[in-house]
Amino acid sequence: MAFDIEKIAELARLKLKPGEKQRLEKDLTAILAYVEKLKVLDTEQVAPTSHVLNLENVFRADEVRLSDTRDRALKYAPSSEGAFFKVPKVVERE
User: Fold this and answer.
1) Average pLDDT, stretch 27-32?
2) Could you say which DSSP state residue 81 is in?
3) Would you place residue 1 in the very low, low, confident or very high pLDDT band (cuts 50, 70, 90)?
4) Is residue 12 situated within a structural domain?
5) What DSSP element (H or E) covers 85?
6) How far, in Å, CA of 26 to CA of 62, rounded?
7) pTM, whole model, 2 decimals?
8) pLDDT tens digit sequence for 52-72
9) Quick check: is 82 in a domain?
10) pLDDT at residue 85 tops 90
11) Where in the sequence is the domain holding 14, given as residue range(s)?
């Protein structure tokens, strides 16, 4: 399969040295030849997957719980107003 290595490098924003161009062209040729081999495989009975491993969610279920984290954080704040930290104004309008 023929391809323009200069154009591919340009599209990928790569600056290749002359030796790198030859090596990249050789590697791309080998990759594309392998993909051509894969095209002849019968995948009709293979279920689509998004990952090669059979992954499952191992996280705990979400549950609503009361928390005093905000109150503890506000206790150590230099200044607060209600349930919020109070900080000096840092943005000026023109």
Assistant:
1) 92
2) E
3) low
4) yes
5) strand 84-85
6) 51
7) 0.45
8) 887 787 888 889 999 999 999
9) no
10) yes
11) 5-39
CA distance 57 to 27: 37
CA atoms 52, 58, 63, 69: torsion sign = negative
Structure token pair of residue 91: 């943005």
| 63 located within any domain | no
DSSP single-letter state for residue 47: P
Question: Is 15 domain-assigned?
Answer: yes
Mean pLDDT for the chain overall:
88
Residue whose pair of structure tokens reads 């689509």 in the numeric block: 48
Round to the nearest angstrom and report the end-to-end CA distance of the chain. 61
Which letter, b or e, does each residue of 54-77 get, where b requires 16 or more Cβ atoms within 10 Å of its Cβ? eeeeeeeeeeeeeeeeeeeebeee
Q: For 15-21, what is the mean pLDDT?
A: 88
Q: How far apart are CA 68 and CA 77, in angstroms?
A: 15
What is the number of domains present in the chain? Answer: 1
